[in-house]
Here is the input.
Amino acid sequence: MKYALIGCGRISVNHIAAAQANGLEIVAVSDILQEKMEEKKHNFKLGEDTKAYADYREMLLKEKPELVAICTESGKHAVIALDCIDAGCHVIIEKPIALSLADADAIINRAKEKGVKVCTSHQNRFNKSIQKIREAVERGRFGKMLYGTAHIRWCRDKNYYAQAPWRGTWEQDGGALMNQCIHNIDLLRWMMGDEIEEVVGMTDRLAHPYIDCEDLGVALVKFKNGSYGIIEGTTDVYPKNLEETLYLFGAKGTVKAGGASVNKIEEWKFADGLDEAERVIDEFHENPPNVYGFGHTPLYADMIDAIKNDREPYVNAAAGRRALELVLAIYKSAAEHVPVQLPIDAVSTMDFKDRFSA
Here is the structure.
């Protein structure tokens, strides 16, 4: 299967590695910076058959890839995705799927119209720990779900934002919740039943005066099934990333996934006694080299299988939209100082561009 990558920045290495691990034919890479393309070609030993294009539209026209991954700044995801879809390409879009619900809807509708698959790169769904927890959710082992919490306690310093001027801007990125925390926000919504009734949020910029957006966000989520969710996300932790954790509390079960990126089960208690907690904790324990984890390779494998068998990807565009909707609902609640009822539509990060300007 012919594959191309658009955007050769920080996360692109995980995508190239996943493409190689799944035997894709990498026909092209594209970036506006020539040195970034050459660096990736050199580091991954991509030969002359892998072309480099400063203009991704030219690449789509000449190379006609079947599958394209979009790893640019978030604000460009939608326009590039629509161009790829119009060219007949299946698409993997790095999170978030877009920065507005209108753009997310356009991607979903255009893909349906053109008959192509779209996957949102929420790769933590493929963590061994998360798959084990999801199995327990689907089997009803928690009983009545009561509440869940997502904590993302990370560090992003001034040097991080200085490396790329789009970071921390409303136009191209969003803040801590949209960029760093959306993976765990996605997991919380997915595990707790997906359907949300109401969101109450607060956001602030406490320690990063040089960015436009929030570096701290907290929220209370009421799900339609009567359960609750609590979200705490920040990039203010000193001096380095502390943890990313997901707790689920049911009437008959308690689980905690922790580690750098919810990559290990740390608590496992169920009334049904179907498995031994110590064994589960020992078996479902990974130690990835960074917060991106090991999920990209199985995400790619699933997308390839979805294309070949004409089915929806495990993490489709609609899943990406739901994660985006929850973050935007928190932003809206925080900005307007009111609870926000879901569903919402026509909301964008640009609606909050003056949020902290004073």
Notes: The longest strand covers residues 145-153. DSSP finds twelve helices and 14 strands in the chain. The chain has two domains: 2-124+296-314, 127-289+321-352. The longest helix spans residues 317-336.
